[in-house]
Design goal:
The chain contains 13 helices and 14 strands. The protein is α/β, with parallel strands linked by helices and 476 residues long. A hairpin with a 5-residue loop joins strand 4 and strand 5. Helix 2 packs across helix 10 and helix 7 runs parallel beside helix 10. The two termini are 38 Å apart. The N terminus and C terminus are likely disordered.
């Protein structure tokens, strides 16, 4: 149910007061006026099923456009294919062995060490830090607070409609509402008339508008829910993926001799009403081929829906003239098996669950700064016909890990790169276990060259040719 006008105005007033207080605090903490902002986009359960990763089926023109202006890492991997451990790991720059989190049931500051996080480090260096959507995993693993107040300057935002994600909002063929895995919806008919990722995009744009009015640098993390299950997305995106065009996984069989400990029986999707109706045997299934196609169709449709939200967010960044002063990092907490090895889940160490997209846009380095009136990230409709060829960005083939996010973002922003962690490091609040990826940006070693450390705009990135990919034409 929508908030009453009084409650809505009260909430807006509280947010405005928090932003103003954060800006005042930042002004006291950092005198730099040319620091680069940071926009960190974290997606839930997204494997590299994107056009920029040479997927020929999925339409992801806005993410592909970001990739064309970024350095893209072809072989990036999460530390663990579970939401909370992965997010805590890359946000602290420590591996799960150090955070002592392999599930959802502990808070690292209590059970491992008082480790600093990426947003905390930026906050301590004068940035206004803001969280929208699912950045930290909610619950015990982030102290039921998204690690506030350590990490964030203002209270983290969670969309009000996310509470309906696992409820009976999927209209079945019987006309009744169900809690299904495959759940294309008419957005006007769902509670509140919206979806969580739409709300997150709106709030992120609202915060960008507020930060536009300040000279202070910001760190904005935006966490999108889709394509996490259930596949609850606007039904029109199904049209992009006719079932007759959907193939099955190329390796759908459980590997012979696979140890049971290496297999996950995907119990979370078995709880959905449409999967329950299939009466699939435990633990190995299999799921009927026609329903496999429906799952894959809805995953791909969820990715295209996600792409539109990323597109609206980046287009707004452009419209606010912030694209030339904002680093953009795009990644996922882990992947998801779409029938490979007989799996329909994360929770494994197969590459389809641990490999993730990872790209960094750095203004003036990975792409030329825009000319007056030029847009770097114009919104592209995934429903437009594919005809335009986009020049590729730079790609790195080296195997990298998400624990590298911390030192890399710090270095790109011109901050002191945290030192490497000793072993053990439970007593050390600020250090990093990941490799610094700055060498891929053709940068001098910022840890050794103190003259460049405070000026992140003094070097250029040299581009290398890679295979092009196609995006929809804006002219239709």
């Amino acid at each position: 149910m929508p908030l009453s006008p009084g409650r809505g105005l009260l909430g807006l007033s509280l947010v405005l007061a928090s932003v103003c207080a954060a800006l005042k605090s930042a002004a006291q903490g950092n005198s730099a006026t040319d620091a680069l902002n940071v926009l960190l986009i974290v997606v839930d359960d997204l494997r590299p099923t994107l056009g920029c990763y040479e997927d020929k089926l999925v339409r992801s023109p806005n993410i592909d456009q970001l990739a064309s202006r970024s350095i893209l890492f072809q072989n990036a991997f999460a530390q663990q294919a579970v939401c909370a451990p992965s997010r805590v790991s890359f946000l602290t720059g420590r591996r799960p062995d150090t955070t002592r989190l392999y599930d959802f049931n502990s808070y690292w500051r209590v059970h491992a060490g008082n480790f600093s996080t990426i947003p905390q480090y930026f906050k301590e260096n004068g940035y206004v830090t803001m969280s929208v959507g699912k950045v930290f995993h909610p619950g015990i693993s982030s102290n039921h607070s998204d690690d506030s107040p350590y990490s964030w300057s203002i209270p983290p935002y969670h969309p009000s409609s996310e509470k309906y994600e696992n409820t009976k909002t999927c209209r079945g063929q019987d006309g009744e509402l169900h809690a299904n895995l495959v759940c294309p919806v008419d957005v006007e008919d769902v509670p509140e008339g919206t979806l969580p990722d739409k709300q997150s995009t709106e709030r992120a744009i609202y915060l960008l508008e507020k930060m536009k009015m300040s000279a202070r640098p910001f760190f904005l993390a935006v966490g999108y829910h889709k394509p996490h299950i259930p596949f609850r997305y606007p039904k029109e995106f199904q049209k992009l993926y006719p079932l007759e065009n959907i193939t099955l996984a190329p390796d759908p069989q459980v590997p012979a001799g696979l140890p049971p400990v290496a297999y996950n029986p995907w119990m979370d999707i078995r709880q959905r009403e449409d999967v329950q109706a299939l009466n699939v045997s435990v633990p190995y299934g299999p799921i009927p081929a026609d329903f496999q196609r429906k799952i894959r169709q809805s995953y791909f449709a969820s990715v295209s829906y996600l792409d539109t939200q990323v597109g609206h967010l980046l287009s707004a960044l452009d419209d606010l003239h912030l694209a030339s002063s904002t680093i953009i990092a795009f990644t996922s907490d882990h992947g998801w098996s779409l029938g490979e090895h007989g799996e329909w889940a994360k929770y494994s160490n197969f590459d389809v669950t641990t490999r993730v997209p990872l790209m960094f846009y750095v203004p003036g380095r990975t792409a030329l700064l825009p000319e007056a009136g030029e847009k770097l990230f114009p919104y592209i409709d995934p429903f437009d016909s594919i005809s335009e060829l986009m020049e590729p960005g730079r790609q790195a083939e080296e195997v990298v890990e998400l624990v590298s996010l911390f030192p890399t973002l710090a270095g790109l922003a011109g901050l002191q790169v945290p030192p490497r962690c000793p072993v053990p490091s439970f007593h050390v609040e600020l250090c990093r276990e990941g490799q610094n990826l700055l060498k891929h940006f053709q940068l001098p070693d910022l840890e050794e060259d103190s003259d460049l450390r405070g000026n992140p705009r003094t070097t250029k990135l040299f581009f290398s040719a890679t295979a092009p990919f196609y995006i929809p034409s804006s002219s239709g």
